[in-house]
What does this fold into?
Amino acid sequence: MTNDIITTDVQGLKVQIIPSTILERLAEAVHRGWMAEKRRQGVSQHPDMLPYDQLPESVKDYDRATVRAVLLELSEIDTEFSTETRGES
It folds into this structure.
């Protein structure tokens, strides 16, 4: 299996096939971002403020759902994106 994210049409529905290694890596990044935002807001105690690998699967599913939603939206706007910011060479 490659690390490519495949978007395909199945009976009129857009379906994404995301390798589990990519999904988990992105979900972990989403979780780290969520924790950073909570800390910025002054939250220091929350039951989900744990390293990703220590979270129960039910909580990880929220991060996975976020990743899937963002990737689907990106595929629907049919654009390419990179990690470079404007003005960088």
Notes: The beta strands are 6-10, 13-17. The chain has a mean pLDDT of 82. The CA atoms of residues 8 and 14 lie 6 Å apart. Helices lie at 20-40, 57-76.
